[in-house]
Amino acid sequence: MYTLLDLRGLILHCYYAGDDVDGSRDEDGAKLHNPAHTLKNFWDLYLEGILKDTTIRQIIAVEDRQSRYRLTLFPEYKAHRKKVVKSEALKLALEASFAAVHGLLDALGIVRVYASRVEADDIIAYMAGKLQCSIYTVDKDLIQLARANRCEVYVKGIYTSSLQMEQGEVA
User: Fold this and answer.
1) Strand partners, 137
2) Is 17 exposed, middle or buried (0-12, 13-18, 19+ CB in 10 A)?
3) Alpha carbons 145 and 151: distance in angstroms, whole number
4) Taking Cα atoms as reference points, which of 109, 74, 76, 97 lies closest to residue 7?
5) How does residue 45 score in pLDDT terms, banded at 50, 70 and 90?
6) Rounded distance, CA 166 to CA 162, Å?
């Protein structure tokens, strides 16, 4: 069984999770975390548990390079989302955290994949159709990929079935 990581969402989850004793705030009050905070959370919340059940060679980190392809096709796509303006300090802190997690994955030998003009969830959906896998994500939309004996979905590290989603058990 393979493990697919919806990398961007997981890194952001790890960045914002918990308190960083070494962190600070930008001029707008946004949290500025140290990359070590994100790395520790990524290990504690995801990798440590994943590595108990699988090998490094079976982990695939799927990246989203901020594709705007869907938005070009469907201008109303994600139009309901509030536009968030990030300070330069927050952008730098996030970039450092992403680089730290990428460095960890590279050092461990975990494969990172992406496709130009294709969002990570589309790559994950394609791979889930071809592989027996576990998917780690923060995106509840990916729960629809859960299939008995083929694909498990973990939202923020918690096993979630499509039945639980239908019954409103997933917050």
Assistant:
1) 155
2) middle
3) 7
4) 97
5) very high
6) 6
pLDDT at 78: 58
84-98 residue pLDDT tens: 678 899 999 999 999
Q: 85: which residues sit within 8 A by CB, 6+ positions away?
A: none
Helices 7-16 and 35-42: crossing angle, nearest 10°?
A: 120
Quote the CA–CA distance of 86 and 88 in Å, as a whole number. 7
In angstroms, rounded to a whole number, what is the distance separating the alpha carbons of residues 21 and 31? 11
> In Å, how far are 28, 52, 125, 127, 145 from 121, measured between CA atoms?
31, 25, 6, 10, 10
DSSP-assigned beta bridge partners for residue 60:
4, 111
Please report the pLDDT score of residue 169 as a whole number: 57
pLDDT digits (tens, 9 = 90+) for 28-40: 888 899 999 999 9
Give the integer Cα–Cα distance in Å for 124 and 38: 23
User: pTM score, two decimals?
Assistant: 0.85
